[in-house]
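Blinded run. Sample ID left blank on purpose so nobody reads anything into the name before looking at the predicted structure. Input follows.
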Amino acid sequence: MSIDKAIKQTKGFKDERKRAVINVMYTGNWLVGHVNDLLKPHKLNDQHYNILRILKGRYPDYISPGQVKEVLLNKRGDLTRLVDKLVKMELVNRCNNDENRRVVNLSITEKGLQLIEDLELEYEMSEKHENKLTEEEAKTLNILLDKMRE
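Blinded prediction complete.
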């Protein structure tokens, strides 16, 4: 469905660049909504999932909350509160840094790793929209989105 129909735009856009920006924002929110629907039964949101993915990428090493925040896709909200929930759910370990007591270290637990694996499988099974783009189309889209942020 075109962005015009999706947002019931009747007057049209000023130009294709404006249309593209709205389309990217709408599609991004649509994708986040889809991911959040998959995460809801696990009592997680897209930020929790992003934190778990970051920690999985560093596993078995530790990472500081500051390093996590640097690479979060969505920096809204309180990182401490988000991590607290993951620790409470036993998906993340938090411990003090032996070299600097003011620094906290984070790592993903085995339970967290298993959840990420299960979620990835669940996500793959539900992702019909990913298959709508060929590899070449996806590559072109990635190049264009990267160019937008330059």
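Unblinding after everyone has recorded impressions. The two ends are 28 Å apart (CA to CA).
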